[in-house]
Specification:
binds guanosine-5'-monophosphate; HIT family, subunit A; 113 residues; single chain; binds zinc ion
């Protein structure tokens, strides 16, 4: 069994509220949402962070962004949304399987103005 939490979600060993699944990407709701819509989009293959997936499989990095857009549309975020890729511990990354946070559903506080 995988040591990686998000690989285990891909494998179905850890339950998640999955909103989109293809052979290459999975999207599921964050367990601790920071906005009314907070979905994580991950590749089914293991890459530690955004820099690693961009180097190893740039097409897959693009598919992650396309899936994020598909999730945002399905969630009704027509007015806009935020995609966040925390990359490395100093940026607050806690799960080292690359994941795009898709956040929306209300005015987000940053950037100001
Ligand atoms: P990071 O801080 O690495 O950018 O984001 C990790 C995210 O994963 C956090 O927002 C956290 O709430 C979420 N998370 C951690 N464990 C689980 C889990 O078991 N299930 C789900 N759905 N989300 C999780
Ligand atoms: Zn993994």
């Amino acid at each position: 069994m995988s040591e990686c939490l998000f690989c285990r979600i891909v494998e179905g060993d850890v339950p998640a509220d999955i909103v989109l699944r293809t052979d290459r990407v999975v999207a599921f709701r964050d367990i601790n949402p920071q906005a009314p819509v907070h979905v994580l989009v991950i590749p089914t293959s293991h890459h530690a962070n955004a820099a690693e997936i961009a180097a190893a499989d740039p097409a897959l990095a693009g598919e992650l962004l396309a899936a994020a857009a598909q999730v945002a549309e399905a969630e009704g975020l027509s007015g806009g949304y935020r995609i966040v890729l925390n990359t490395g511990a100093d940026a607050g990354q806690t799960v080292f399987h690359v994941h795009a946070h898709v956040l929306g559903g209300r005015d987000l506080l940053w950037p100001p103005g």
